[in-house]
Write the structure tokens for this entry.
Amino acid sequence: QSVLTQPPSASGTPGQRVTISCSGSNSNVGNNNVNWYQQLPGTAPRLLIYTTDRRPSGVPDRFSGSKSGTSASLAISDLQSEDEADYYCASWDDNLYGHVFGPGTKVTVL
Amino acid sequence: QLQLQESGPGLVKASETLSLTCSVSGGSIIGNKFYWGWIRQPPGKGLEWIASLSKTTGRSFYNPSLKSRVTISFDTSNNQFSLRLTSVTAADTALYYCAREDYYNGRGPDFDYWGQGALVTVSS
């Protein structure tokens, strides 16, 4: 059972905007940064968003992150076929004193 | 460009010890503010953080559910760090990733560089 909650799946057609939610608590999302990782099929996870809303070099600005209270979101605008992947949110948890990951959301491009 | 590469036995017998090494190239594991960590992913499942360690500060953090069985250490002469997981069971079968953890200037902490992963299967 994950400490963070994500929907198992999300989908959209090319060009659409897709949003993935990540729900936590005051000990993690509410009080700490949120990071998002993209895992393409058969590959290692890749840091997509860090410190809630920052993009590492090389990540398209179609990807954006936000947070409000104990919930965070990842938005993918102008959805493209290469965005089909699993997306994980993650945060530090002050009670567990460690990193926690969400269960992941599989994004399908229809 | 920083690169990480996991290595170790792909098959471990139940009740024995899993040992993996992460070789780091393109940067040093000492003399900086990064942590170095391990994350695993059971087949078809999500990510689980195992542990993180800083060579510079000596501080370490462990997943409470694994802490009693995990040891993470450095081999600075070879720019490597290692994971040992004792008393393994089938539930420890997973793809094991090593990663660099950045927390500098209030960012993250996040895992910004990852190895490609090493599959470890626990056999009965």
In short: The interface with chain A takes residues 37, 39, 46-49, 52, 61-64, 97, 102, 106-112, 114-117 of chain B (CB under 8 Å). Chain B is about 0% helix and 50% strand. The longest strand of chain B covers residues 94-102.
